[in-house]
Amino acid sequence: MQPTVPIESNNNSKENETDKELENLVKNYEILREDYPNYDLLFKIIVIGNSGVGKSCLSMQATRNSFDTNYLATVGFEFFVFNIKFDSRIIKLQIWDTCGQEIYRSLITSFYKNSSLALIVYAIDDEKSFNDIDLWIKDLRTNSSPDIKIFLIGNKADLESNRKISKEQALQIKRDFDFNLFMETSAKTGFNAQELFIEASKVLYIDYVKHQQKPKKRGELIKDKNPNKKKGNKCC
């Protein structure tokens, strides 16, 4: 099944043959089970945002197709895996779901290290979770790589009748901070839950391929997998 088209994503590259070839790389895919043992490329994703916005439930819905109405708030972090195959390459996403309580915020900064992509999650019915995006961006910019990819995620789209944050407001934040993508999701109904991580896989894989196509510089380490080995590149 092809993913739901995101509300808005960056597309600043020229429409040339190279871009079309890269898009073709991720046009066809296969989602693999969570415990699939092998992979070619490994990427770390960190999920951040206020407590109660549904970060863990969203990750669980995407990776395990389940939703728990009695799910307790995360303390520390939780770990999920999403596997997807593009053509002949298997991509493994390590999803680090962090706690959102303010008292623990300083303890999770170490999880930002070596993350390839960050999901900043707010709830569309929670104004504070949206207003606190600035704080999460500050933490992210301070503790992560400067070239980290960032997705803005408006969760709890099933609560449309209680909506406090419009799509237009979120799109403005996305533009202001030059995020890579904005998407609304629902952990409860599954709306865009799996599609979110499909899009993340595409962005990271295309970026990886582009990097591999750049001319090598003296002393530059270009990471790639030996096809005879079982383990792939490690991000952390």
Envelope shape: globular
> Taking all residues together, what is the mean pLDDT?
84
Q: Report how far apart the termini are.
A: 31 Å
CATH C-level class is Alpha Beta
Q: Could you give a quick summary of the protein structure above?
A:
This protein is an alpha/beta fold and 236 residues long. It has helices at residues 17-25, 55-64, 127-131, 133-143, 167-176, 193-213; strands at residues 8-9, 29-32, 41-48, 77-86, 89-98, 117-123, 149-155, 181-184.
Protein described:
The protein is α/β, with parallel strands linked by helices. It has one domain: Rossmann fold. The protein has six helices and eight strands. A hairpin with a 2-residue loop joins strand 4 and strand 5. The longest helix has 21 residues. The N terminus is likely disordered.
Q: Layout of SSEs?
A:
Blueprint: E1 8-9, H1 17-25, E2 29-32, E3 41-48, H2 55-64, E4 77-86, E5 89-98, E6 117-123, H3 127-131, H4 133-143, E7 149-155, H5 167-176, E8 181-184, H6 193-213
Parallel strand pairs: 3-5, 3-6, 6-7, 7-8
Antiparallel strand pairs: 1-8, 2-4, 4-5
Main traits of this protein?
single chain, 236 residues, alpha/beta, 6 helices, 8 strands, 28% helix, 22% strand, disordered N terminus
